[in-house]
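A quick aside before the break. I want you to see a complete sequence-to-structure record at least once, exactly as it would be stored in a machine-readable document. Don't worry about memorizing anything.
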Amino acid sequence: VTGVQTCALPILAWSLSAASAVGGAALMICFGLGTLPMLLAMPVAVSAFEFRPGQWQETETGLEDGKPVPPETSTSCMTPEEAKDPLKGLSPQDMKGMCKTYDVKMTGSGMSLRWVCGDPKQMLMDITASFVFASPTAYSGTMKSEVVLMGKKSTMDKKIEGKWIAAQCKK
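That is the input. The structure line, written in tokens, reads:
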């Protein structure tokens, strides 16, 4: 039961027990007018997040095949188009165009999803990720992945910290 349903049920019961149909209808109209702005604003808040375009640095820490690995730092360029859509902006840079996205759940402050990338005959990556957007210039997240390369399976469990470092991307 959502908050809107929990709140609406007593109002509905109250409006049905009103002394007149007009009184009950007026109560429902007032309730609807009071909740409508919030309902209309919710999708806007969720989709309005944008990153800052430019050069980004990402540091990964964690495990590969159950063993700790040294931190790995890389940089990438986020275009203005990618920055407007966190899903595009956080897609695996080296696999663009080779990934399918599933189970996307967006909130105003983050997202979770699953990517399946590559060709099953050569290399296949199955990645489950969750990101928290701290600001337009910073995010953190976790990634669990299974990679099959020429029949050999490998797993990764990583934490990610991303930060914006420059407006211009290095070539």
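Two observations worth writing down. Confidence is low (pLDDT under 50) at residues 1-16, 35-46. The helical segments are 3-16, 21-47, 80-83, 86-89. We'll return to this after the break.
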